[in-house]
Amino acid sequence: MRLQDKVAIVTGAGRNIGEQTALLFAEEGAKVAVVDMDEERGKRTADTVNQAHDGAAVYISADVSNEQSVKDMIAATVDAFGRLDILVNNVAISDNKTVFECTLDDFNRILAVTLTSQFLTSKYAAEQMISQGDGGAIVNIGSTSGFQGRDSAIAYAAAKGGVANLMRGLAVQLAPSKIRVNSVVPNKIGSPVGQEEFDPTRPVPNLAGRAGEPRELAQAVLFLASDEANFIYGENLVVDGGFSAMM
Predict the structure, then answer these.
(1) Which residue, among 165, 216, 207, has the nearest Cα to 186 in the 3D structure?
(2) Count of domains observed in the chain
(3) 112-154 per-position pLDDT tens digit
(4) Start-to-end CA span in the chain (Å)
(5) Nearest to 224 by CA among 238, 213, 210, 212
(6) Which of 45, 76, 188, 205 is 20 to 30 A from 8 (CA-CA)?
(7) Active site residue 59
(8) Angle 113-96-70 (CA atoms, 0-180°, nearest 5)?
(9) What gap in Å lies between CA 234 and CA 128, rounded to an integer?
(10) Which residue is catalytic, options 59, 124, 156, 233?
């Protein structure tokens, strides 16, 4: 049980990577705050966790791009489980637009949900971890889109590029407080951002010759959140089936 007696927040936990991360964390002994603005999805994940591990999950509705909502999310987690040890910043939205199609409102909204949210949640989660005095772990979900130019999703690519270096800054600033910060970098894992259904015909150019499964990325998140990664700081761990090797 790699996360025995740990308490984790997983944002965007109603589907895909976030859902599988919440389920895997509970299997490994953690209590999990399942955070999602979609109540149906979020409660579904929490219920699934609790069916297998009674009392291991609570559903929390939060807008992680809103500062007060983030503060309330942290407080609700501590009220439910007494502490906070792990934060997984998974929530994101995409624009799938070119620079000419993307409006300023589109751009600002994508950055708010995909990048600014990671700043806010990391800031207030770290405050809680520091108050407890025994450190913690933050794992951000990046994307290969943050490391390459694309013919679409101009705002999403910019946001994910920001995620990569925000993580490094957080790693440097929080390490003295025994908080490790890292990111995982997926490519085409499960269903596309914001979509419920997985399309098996979706082109997947990688060395594995297939799309990644959400559980496969969740396993990488688990590793970085666990004590097995105690000597890893500020790392962008690429989990992309070899896509980056072909770039």
Answers:
(1) 216
(2) 1
(3) 999 999 999 999 999 999 999 999 999 999 999 999 999 999 9
(4) 37
(5) 238
(6) 188
(7) no
(8) 5
(9) 20
(10) 156
pTM for the whole thing?
0.95
Summary mean pLDDT of the chain: 95
Tens of pLDDT, residues 42-79: 999 999 999 999 999 999 999 999 999 999 999 999 99
Which spans in 28-143 are helix H? Answer: 39-52, 67-81, 104-111, 117-132
Do 154 and 97 form a contact (C-beta atoms < 8 A)? Answer: yes
CA 61, chain centre distance (Å): 16
Range of the domain at 208: 7-246
Q: Which of 148, 150, 76, 145 is nearest to 115 (CA)?
A: 145
Q: What is the CATH number of the domain that holds 69?
A: 3.40.50.720
Question: Is the distance from CB of 181 to CB of 157 less than 8 angstroms?
Answer: no
State the Cα–Cα distance between residues 140 and 102, nearest whole angstrom.
Answer: 25
What tens digit of pLDDT does each residue of 34-47 get? 999 999 999 999 99
